[in-house]
Amino acid sequence: MKKISIVIPAHNEEGNIPLIYQRIKDIFSKIANYRFEIIFVNDGSRDNTQQILEQISQNNEDIKFIEFSRNFGHQHAVKAGMDYSTGNAMISMDADLQHPPELIPELIKKWEEGFDIVHTIRKYPKQISSFKRKTSKLYYRFLTRISDVNLSEGGGSDFRLMDASVVDVVRNMHESDIFLRGLSYWMGFKCVGIHFTACERATGESSYNLKKMMKFAFTGITAFSVKPLYLAAYLGFIFSAIATVGYGTYVIHSFLTGTEISGWASLIMTVVFFGGVQLIILGIMGIYLGKIFNQVKQRPNYIIRSKNF
Ligand code: UDP
Ligand code: MG
């Protein structure tokens, strides 16, 4: 009998854990021939997530849990679950039931057809704020344009199936700023995508505020592209060209008319403008430098406080 590992990161999800467990159990009782294990990764929750996991796993052998020593972030939580998964295939999904468990049989079907990675392509329902829908769409379009990965529209969801051989490849990656959405496209393999409409969060509230979303967005861009670093060179060329033309015009003008163009205001503006541009470029370089710094320290990407296996 083939075994499917389901990896679920959970950060303050006390209300959702019994719900998602029941839904997954129901699904697997309908599709015979598969065993399953669920690996919940408690990513530094401050509510009763841990107590609930300990309780529920006592009566159910198919539930494993990993408790982090603090919050290490959603991506590392998924990575930890993958590191410990033992199934023939692994499915990662959110704890809040935004990823409908009813899609699991379809994911497995595609896998049985021979695909190594089954992505899901998300459509947000109308209830989700249009701000989130629009920024998400724009972001993935931008990321696809400037990086080598092709994150098709709505490809940014961490609901996916990976064959055990692919999980093995990911297990051996130790990126301090891991961005699984990009990696799963970057690795290649035989991939296919299936469409789904995201649901509303069952209980609790989202852990992603605007600031966290921005940071996540930067992580994605800087993990898959060095193009922002070229910005300095491009801008340098453009502004040098403009300055050369401007200076030429000025020389000719004062030669022909015998007058000098005065204007300290325009001078100050130019200085401030270029100061700003230089700071932006320095900031971009700083982001990459920070990533190198974090990677070089080689600290573990997560620390486990307890687990039940
Ligand atoms: N999550 C996590 N660590 C975090 C933030 C989120 O493990 O620091 C989990 C969370 O419990 C959920 C999934 O990641 O299972 C997606 O998070 P959330 O629903 O808050 O994000 P959204 O769906 O609003 O983008
Ligand atoms: Mg969610």
The second-level CATH architecture of the largest domain is Alpha-Beta Complex
Largest sheet: 8 strands, mixed
Compute the separation of the termini in Å: 21 Å
**H/E series:** EHEHEHEHEHEHHEHHHE
Small-molecule binders: uridine-5'-diphosphate, magnesium ion
Summarize model confidence as the mean pLDDT.
88
The domain count comes to 2
Number of helices: 10
In total, the number of strands is 8
Write down the CATH class of the largest domain: Alpha Beta
Which fold name corresponds to the CATH topology of the largest domain? Spore Coat Polysaccharide Biosynthesis Protein SpsA, Chain A
CATH homologous superfamily of the largest domain? Spore Coat Polysaccharide Biosynthesis Protein SpsA, Chain A
Low-confidence stretches: none
Radius of gyration over all CA atoms, rounded: 25 Å
Q: What is the 3D shape?
A: elongated
Adjacency order of strands in the biggest sheet = 7-5-6-4-1-2-3-8
GO molecular function, one term: glycosyltransferase activity
InterPro entries: Glyco_trans_2-like, Glycosyltransferase_2, Nucleotide-diphossugar_trans
Transmembrane segments: 229-252, 264-289
Domain Glycosyltransferase 2-like: 5-164
